[in-house]
């Protein structure tokens, strides 16, 4: 099952890299980032973490990957993060919220909206955390003659 | 070299980055970097997602400024990477301003991938997302067809200059309608999975990423603007989908 998830998320992210016009070998590296994020998310869900919290290990993993690979490839980190982030955007939460609204089930809709916002926030928090820590590491490395 | 001309070239580089989906702090940095590599030490840019304001001076008596309004935005990450690379390289090994401008023109004139390729990629992506969310192979097949139609439609609508929010409402309405029809024809099994898988083509991944990165860079105006953009895109997707589902429930009775 996890193999299907891995292959499908790799292909999906690769296609997004094509749509966003990434050229050359960079798109394959971006696709690996998308795969890592999605597999980490699925594993965290299996391990019993909540729908919101599972996104934290996932986003930390793919953004760390993006920061490391971007430096090797001498390309802006954003180009990799934009593609790798796509599978984790809470599109299903958004749809389910809307569905509950149309059915007139306000209580359910509010609960779903809170979960969806929480997911988006967690995703952002993971990316922000990794980016800040990377900046810190780079600065410390420059100060210390290693 | 004339300050005004250097500033002009630098802001053109910034414009390419902004138009193709770059962060605003990257635009500000690039403008300052290019000006400095040509010996204009005092150069600042103030950039929002919709425009660039930049000024440069060598002496207090000679202050130049330029404003560029960015109206049309697409996503072409390759151009961002190339302008970034060019500006960085220029810090160490400066080329003439004319040559620099010519290279910028070359980057700007590079055509994006053809519509056929992009439509094909969208089809595969939609199918894969449907599988990832737990859909069956026939669900994935339906999503593939939807991916082709939606990507083609949004590209054409964008070419006509229709605003982004209306394009998203329309795109998500088409996705939902086709998803419901696919289940109604008994091709697909899980309507909601087909619809969600295809909707992933329109989710605001770029706006979310830029909102995070601009906020971290201390660019609060751009960060909040991008965040609002992401939220508005999400709302317009929900609106398009909701309208169709509401009507379907009204006329066809029940749903999915």
Summarize the structure in words:
The complex is a heterodimer of chains A (146) and B (256). With 146 residues, chain A is mainly α. Chain A has helices at 2-19, 26-46, 55-73, 77-85, 91-102, 106-143. In chain A, helix 2 (26-46) crosses helix 4 and helix 3 (55-73) packs parallel to helix 6 (106-143). The model of chain A has no long low-confidence stretch (mean pLDDT 93). Chain B has 256 residues and is mainly alpha-helical. Chain B has ten helices and three strands, in the order H-H-E-E-E-H-H-H-H-H-H-H-H. The termini of chain B are far apart. The mean pLDDT of chain B is 92. The interface between A and B is large, with 45 and 53 residues.
Using brief descriptors, characterize the structure shown.
heterodimer; A: 146 residues; mainly alpha; 6 helices; B: 256 residues; 2 domains; 3-stranded antiparallel β-sheet; 10 helices; 3 strands; 69% helix; 8% strand
Short overview:
With 146 residues, chain A is an all-alpha fold. Chain A has six helices and no strands. Chain A has one domain.
Order of helices and strands of chain B: HHEEEHHHHHHHH
Percentage beta strand of chain A: under 5%
Strand order of the largest sheet of chain B: 1-2-3
What profile does the largest beta sheet of chain B have? 3 strands, antiparallel
Shape of chain B: elongated
Order of SSEs of chain A: HHHHHH
Averaging pLDDT over every residue of chain B, what do you get? 92
Structural class of the secondary structure composition of chain B?
A: mainly alpha
Task: Give the proportion of residues in helices of chain A.
Answer: over 70%
Tell me the distance between the termini of chain B. Answer: 68 Å
As for the number of domains of chain B, it is 2
Strand content of chain B: 5-15%
Category by helix and strand content of chain A? mainly alpha
Number of helices of chain B: 10
Largest Cβ-defined interface: A-B, 45 and 53 residues
Instruction: Please tell me the overall pLDDT of chain A.
Output: 93
Number of strands of chain A: 0
Largest sheet of chain A: none
